[in-house]
Amino acid sequence: MVEFEVRERVEADEAALAALREQVADGGRVAFTIRDHVPAADVRRARHPDSVGVIAEADGRLVGSGWVRFDRARIGGQVVQVGFLHGLAVHPDYRRQGVARAMTDFRLRRVEARGPGVVAVATIQRGNAGSMANAEWWASRVTGDLRVTPVPMRRARPGGGGGWTVRAAVRDDLDTIVAELERRYRDFGVAPVTGREELTAWLETAVGDITEVNSYVVVTDRRGRLLAGLGVIDEARLSEMRVRAMPYAMRLAGRALGVVGAGGVMRNLSVTWAWHRPDSVAAGRFLWQTVRWRMRGRGTALVTTVDVRDPIRAMISAPGWLPSTSIALVIRSSSPWDDARLLAVPS
Q1: Which regions of the chain are under pLDDT 70?
Q2: Which residues contact 256 (CB under 8 A, 6 or more apart)?
Q3: Model confidence over 207-248: pLDDT tens digits?
Q4: Among 31, 55, 66, 276, which has the minimal tally of Cβ within 10 Å of its Cβ?
Q5: Rounded Cα distance, 284 and 292, in Å
Q6: Within-domain flag for 335
Q7: Three-class SS state of 172
Q8: Does 340 reside within a domain?
Q9: How far apart are CA 134 and CA 19, in angstroms?
């Protein structure tokens, strides 16, 4: 058994952390590494300022890392404080030696220090046996099937439109957007908090000199009434994914569709906070197809992460034949649980 030390991350660790991110692939069905275009520390400060990093050192070098970020989430219909565990990585030469568990324990103790009502949450890619095994000793529940699908950009302008107008959201739209998101997530078991304060801060996020990392797009009718909306995170400006392994048929499909580029590179934009009025599914679909067309120059795909039971899939359609993977939510909470409720990534 190797001897290692676990400690809190400091600024001087950043270069070694970036190198580790390029070396260590996720262990799920789709294995990938991350290459940063801007310092990861700048991204964390901008997106999740209340974060704590942990690293593991052995043989005089950095061999593991992980993060816990603190935020609010809606769990079981209540807004609670959460500690979101993410970014766990261990160098292949040091796996199965207790490194992952020690870093997880470090982060869980940080969650516990915030108070008894703080809920620990994580996401794990299905098929990542190591992370699943690591979660079994601390989680009260591993649940859900959230399908992660990179949907290729459109090569042609969508037809139709029916008098609808797709445009960027403006400040006067925010109250309507917030009300619709509250309606959408009201009965979810796990969901993000989507108040005006959260949406405003999200839209104003800047990473160093890079502004407009996040954008929100809506579709209106002839009277200007909002019918649907969705948020887009321009991940491709901050980093790229490099696919190291995926099922052969999935890799072929990804290349044919332009989702996976040369060298296995994926430049993704992520979709979040999507909604449509109950009578406006068609308008929502038109918004989705228009965004796929208008943002075609920004990346290779728009990535959706949606509970397989979620009706929003009728709007942000991702055909089953597209390459995809699945993630589960891992939760430690003493609150009652209802498996019938839908799930969304909370933060």
Answers
A1: 25-29, 245-257, 347
A2: none
A3: 988 999 999 999 999 999 999 999 999 999 999 888 876 665
A4: 31
A5: 12
A6: no
A7: helix
A8: no
A9: 24
